[in-house]
Amino acid sequence: MPRLLEVEAAPPGAFGELEPTAPPLTDAQGRIRLSFSRIDTYRTCPRKFRFRYVDRLPTLPSPHLSFGTSIHGALEAFHDRKLPEQPTEDELLGFLFEAWDTRGFEELPRQEQLAYYRHAQQVLRRYHARPWPADRTTAATEAWFEVPFAYEAVVVGSIDRVDVDADGGLHVVDYKTNRKARSRAEVASSLQLALYALACQHLYGSLPRTVALDFVVPGLTVTVPLDDLDLDAAREAVLVTAAAIRAERFETLPNRLCDWCDHRTVCPAWEGEGDDAFGAAVATAAQLRRRLHREVQQLRELEAGVARIAAERGLDT
Ligand code: SF4
User: What separation in angstroms does the CA of 52 have from each of 7, 25, 168, 277?
Assistant: First the structure.
């Protein structure tokens, strides 16, 4: 069973550590190496794609990413267990403990970190309580794929889960940790799911019967049949994106996500605004204050512990 993870999907890092270098932009055959997230980034803003995958500027971990990584890790372990015995709720929470990715939370006060962890536990308890279709079994989790598109591109990634039904039909499931579920029409137009359907065909020799986004936070799975997907549009999106990257077309497209872009301070669209440098300084100062606060607390706890032990032994500190 394939279990590799796409490197760019796994942000690392203790405080101040940055994401590891992304995989190369082309493979050994000269094909543009894409993933859903790379295509999505290019379509959102080609300049952002360049900053991230050509210039290799680092990105920082975030609570949202680490929360998603942790939930994915726990669910992967949960569905990896072979039937007939499904893991208990306690076991699922144990998987969460093992998979918990602290990197995006390290700058948060302890109470906020705990709130994220408790929220994740609550989400997984609800997940565990769901009724499961009796005629489905898990065929693969984190199914790694590398799908070639002519000599132009190769799309890589991993499908969160592939189920098989009693008739041998395949069903693709991707977990989402957004707070709100998307509509059926949005799911049907998902480029990611269309690419996963093509990947399923490449891996197992047949297209899936259904594809689904499982919004684990609200606890809602939105499933659409294969016929609702536009696979030709997905193939076209891959080839058009690969051609544009090969032609080095990296125009700047300001958009509603610019405020969360890791590269805004170096982006020409925001040059001379001044606010960015100031905003970055304020954010860094806040991070340093939180770190200092945490370390002072640790120091006090340590001093109190040392004093306690010294008193028990009749020693001076
Ligand atoms: S700040 Fe906005 S316009 Fe600039 S690179 Fe990022 S997403 Fe693109």
Answer: 13, 11, 41, 20
Q: Give yes or no: residues 56 and 113 share one domain.
A: yes
Same domain, yes or no, for 79 and 110?
Answer: yes
314 falls within a domain: yes
* 3-state DSSP assignment of residue 11: coil
pLDDT digits (tens, 9 = 90+) for 19-38: 445 567 998 889 999 999 99
- Ligand 1 lining (C-beta closer than 6 Å): 45, 47-48, 51, 252-255, 257-258, 261, 263-264, 267, 269-270
Give the distance (Å) from ligand 1 centre to CA of residue 197.
Answer: 30
**pTM of the full predicted structure?**
0.78
Classify residue 281 by burial, with Cβ atoms within 10 Å: 0-12, 13-18, 19+: exposed
Distances, alpha carbon 10 to alpha carbons 33, 67, 72, 213, 294, in Å: 17, 11, 11, 20, 26
Number of domains observed in the structure of the chain: 3
- Cα–Cα nearest to 96, from 66, 127, 110, 117: 117
Q: Which of 293, 283, 281 is nearest to 62 (CA)?
A: 283
- 57 has a pLDDT exceeding 50: yes
CA quadruple 105, 106, 107, 113: dihedral sign: positive
CATH number of the domain that residue 181 is part of: 3.90.320.10
Burial of 83-99, coded b for 16+ CB within 10 Å and e otherwise, reads eeeebeeebbbebbeeb
